[in-house]
Write a structure and sequence with these properties.
By secondary structure, this protein is α/β, with parallel strands linked by helices. The protein has 13 helices and 14 strands.
């Protein structure tokens, strides 16, 4: 059954609900203190630029994880993930966590864009939950929105998140707990607080989410120091004395095509570069996060890779080292899509289009390496 609005409503403007009820995940992203910040921005073009940089980047990340944008309300954004209607789909629920963590990791990248526009920095909170939602559509515009208790709870618990971090509600936490523990071993969940629901004051637990550190829980400070020293020692073995890091020419190459990895690695090593290759983006991120920040001079990324694609990896690496040089090596159609997503990416500078001749490839790399 479809609800067609109240009697006397303009049928072209009415909001319509199907009788279908869907259990699914949603993510709610809310800017912190934007009303106060924009009050001091003055001219309206600056205000619209401030909001558009943030909202557009969050929307792009969500879409890359299969989200549908259901609502933008001033300084907030609500995303709906239809694939999570299947509670047995491990990948769909991992994508929820990866989406939120990528949004959190995009903090430095987004604020670098704010800085270039001479705009104040932005902080935000990310909340996510699972439960029953209702979808409404407008006959006039064809747009849709989601409603229901889950939507309300997700927006309410948002304030319990620390700035630029992610929390999840207890309903989603229980779904994650239903999977084998090994499925979500890369994530760390901690109790972040409780939300009191309505007049009943029922307690609803909320949990923070972070990517699990490579340090095991319970290590003391001495162990942390020893761990970091070991990482530096391992890096020394790669490039020699630590004081020579910034003068070395080290490249990280990530592509899920093993033949391309072998070809580019051979070319670059013949040219004299030291090359680390990964056909798994998650392993590449692990290596990048564990290696001394000035070790890599350049990262070459494919865009279309399983699990974590090149755009998602770009945000993560920029959150670790905002100054790292990154070139996307990809097919033309993906390059055009990338340019629409990241307008500050320059085709001739930040993209190598497949296929490319060996000499042209090396010329592009050598030119990038020669730039300060």
């Amino acid at each position: 059954m479809i609800y067609r609005g109240e009697e006397g409503d303009d049928p072209n403007n009415s909001l319509h609900f199907s009788g279908e009820q869907i259990d699914s995940c949603i993510i709610f992203i809310d800017m912190i203190g934007s009303t106060r910040i924009t009050a001091n921005l003055g001219a309206s073009p600056r205000i619209t630029k401030y909001y558009s940089i943030f909202i557009n980047n969050m929307a792009v990340i969500g879409k890359n994880y299969g989200a549908l944008i259901t609502n933008t309300a001033g300084d907030s954004l609500t995303l709906y993930f239809p694939h999570t209607s299947n509670k047995t789909d491990t990948i769909a629920f991992k994508n929820i966590l990866e989406c939120g963590l990528t949004m959190s990791a995009a903090f430095h990248y987004i604020n670098s864009k704010m800085s270039r526009e001479h705009l104040p920095s932005v902080n935000y909170r990310i909340s996510c939950d699972y439960g029953r939602i209702y979808i409404g559509t407008s006959f006039k515009s064809g747009s849709y929105d989601i409603f229901g208790h889950t939507v309300n709870i997700c927006s309410e618990i948002n304030r319990l998140a620390a700035p630029n971090s992610m929390i999840i509600g207890d309903n989603l936490f229980k779904v994650i707990e239903s999977f084998p523990s090994s499925s979500f071993a890369d994530y760390q969940f901690e109790f972040a607080g409780k939300y009191l629901i309505g007049q009943s004051k029922n307690v609803y637990p909320v949990f923070s989410v972070a990517r699990r550190q490579h340090l095991s829980l319970g290590q003391d400070q001495d162990q942390v120091v020893n761990y970091n020293a070991e990482l530096i020692s391992n890096s020394k073995e790669k490039v020699g004395p630590i004081q020579n890091f910034r003068h070395s020419k080290n490249i990280l190459l990530v592509d899920d095509d093993s033949d391309i990895l072998w070809t580019y690695k051979a070319l670059l090593e013949y040219e004299g570069y030291k090359v680390s290759t990964f056909n798994n983006s998650e392993e590449a991120l692990k290596d990048f996060s564990q290696t001394e920040s000035s070790y890599y001079d350049l990262v070459l990324l494919d865009i279309r890779m399983p699990h974590m694609n090149g755009l998602q990896l770009f945000y993560r690496m920029k959150s670790i080292n905002k100054d790292i040089k990154i070139i996307f090596v990809t097919a033309l159609d993906a390059a055009e899509e990338l340019l629409s997503i990241l307008p500050d990416i320059i085709f001739d500078k930040h993209i190598i289009k497949k296929p490319i001749g060996n000499e042209s490839f090396l010329e592009k790399i050598n030119l990038t390496m020669s730039e300060s």
